[in-house]
Specification:
By secondary structure, the protein is mainly β. 8% of the residues lie in helices and 46% in strands. It has one domain (7-110): Immunoglobulin-like. It has helices spanning 40-43, 100-105, and strands spanning 7-9, 14-22, 28-37, 48-53, 60-68, 76-87, 91-95, 107-110. The strands form two sheets. Strands 1, 3, 4, 6, 7 and 8 form a six-stranded mixed β-sheet that branches. A two-stranded antiparallel sheet has the order 2-5.
Length: 125
């Protein structure tokens, strides 16, 4: 589908992600990411997102996230479109130019599930 070597996932696959957060002294509770389809006509109906708690001490925390590719996900390339961090008092959103460098290098491709039936066999265990 594409000339780039993106990681490829089928519906039901899990995309393992990590957001590293460096911050001044504040209570960071949660972080998340939104991926959007590369093609403009698919962008609004094809957002994939995940969120989760942060772990760590000092001025650095990590959110280890799992994004499951849902059934019916539109096949194609998805790029990081928005990241966000929730502190005790507010939510900080990062998008557009703020994450352009991340979006330029961080993408994956969702493949359509094959139409043919899988081969099966039956045996005693």
């Amino acid at each position: 589908m594409s000339e780039h070597d993106y990681r490829k996932f089928l519906p039901g696959d899990e995309v393992k992600l990590k957001i590293e957060i460096r911050y001044p002294r504040m209570h960071v509770r949660e972080a998340g990411v939104v991926f959007r389809h590369d093609r403009h006509e698919e962008r609004d109906k094809s957002a994939l997102s995940t969120r989760g708690p942060t772990k760590g001490e000092g001025n650095s925390k990590v959110a280890e996230l799992t994004l499951e590719v849902p059934p019916g996900a539109v096949p194609g390339v998805y790029r990081a479109n928005e990241l966000w961090v929730e502190t005790y008092e507010r939510v900080y959103h990062y998008e557009g130019e703020e994450i352009a460098a991340i979006a330029a290098r961080f993408a994956f491709e969702v493949l359509a599930e094959p139409d043919e039936k899988p081969d099966i066999s039956l045996s005693y265990r």
